[in-house]
């Protein structure tokens, strides 16, 4: 059993450390590990049997090997009937916990990147005066994020700081083009 525990710890521990230190893009991690699961419901019986999850197997293997090796050091080699169920149980529950925790955390993460189209037609607040031929700044809160943009106007009037205007275009330079409320809607 020593060899099995040490091999499991080596393989699982290496994969676990690699995923922690090389992590990469969180979307890629979720797609490669999270969505590759046999997750039909996630809350019923299959939620307790996450055997299709790569993440489950990485944690299971690492903690099965670690527990088994630690028990051999503490208890000696002569009690495999006690050590194996404990190692299997801790490996299973650590794998299950990892899948559940990471799935819960990924549900709470921001999954939408803002695009210029998200701003169009939005009412924004002028934070630095804007006039025809003079750049200023506007800010808005959209999808839980506060965004500040450089802005310009084609209107004849000046918009002072604190004025509410409508953003109707993002020009080729990336500037927000705004107009008085009512003109752009």
Regions with pLDDT < 50 over 5+ consecutive residues? 24-44
Number of spatially distinct domains: 2
- Which sequence of strands runs across the widest sheet? 1-2-3-5-4
End-to-end Cα distance:
73 Å
Q: Give the number of DSSP strands.
A: 5
Q: Could you explain the architecture of this structure?
A:
The longest helix is centred in the middle third of the chain and has 28 residues, at 80-107. A five-stranded mixed beta barrel has the order 1-2-3-5-4. It starts with a helix and ends in a 5-residue tail after the last strand. The protein is rod-shaped, with a radius of gyration of 28 Å. The chain has two domains: 2-107, no CATH class; 116-180, OB fold (Dihydrolipoamide Acetyltransferase, E2P) (Beta Barrel), CATH 2.40.50.140. 43% of the residues lie in helices and 18% in strands. The chain is of the alpha+beta class. α1 packs across α3 and α3 (54-75) runs antiparallel to α4.
Set down the secondary structure blueprint.
Elements: H1 2-22, H2 26-34, H3 54-75, H4 80-107, E1 123-128, E2 136-142, E3 145-153, E4 164-170, E5 176-180
Helix pairs in contact: 1-3, 3-4
What are its keywords?
alpha+beta; 5 strands; 2 domains; 185 residues; five-stranded mixed barrel; OB fold (Dihydrolipoamide Acetyltransferase, E2P)
Task: Quickly describe the structure.
The protein contains four helices and five strands. The chain is α+β, with helices and mostly antiparallel strands and 185 residues long.
């Amino acid at each position: 059993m020593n060899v099995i525990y040490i091999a499991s710890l080596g393989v699982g521990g290496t994969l676990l450390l690699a995923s922690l230190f090389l992590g990469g893009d969180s979307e890629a991690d979720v797609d490669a590990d999270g969505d590759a699961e046999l997750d039909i419901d996630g809350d019923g019986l299959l939620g307790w049997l996450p055997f299709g999850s790569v993440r489950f197997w990485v944690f299971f293997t690492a903690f099965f090997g670690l527990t088994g090796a630690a028990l051999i050091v503490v208890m000696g080699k002569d009690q495999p009937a006690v050590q194996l169920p404990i190692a299997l149980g801790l490996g299973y529950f650590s794998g299950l916990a990892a899948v559940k925790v990471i799935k819960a955390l990924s549900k709470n993460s921001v999954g939408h990147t803002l695009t210029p189209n998200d701003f169009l037609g939005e009412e924004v607040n002028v934070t630095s005066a804007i006039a025809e031929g003079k750049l200023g700044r506007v800010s808005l809160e959209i999808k839980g994020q506060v965004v500040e943009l450089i802005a310009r106007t084609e209107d004849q009037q000046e918009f002072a700081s604190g004025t509410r205007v409508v953003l109707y275009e993002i020009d080729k330079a990336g500037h927000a083009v705004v107009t008085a409320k009512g003109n752009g809607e």
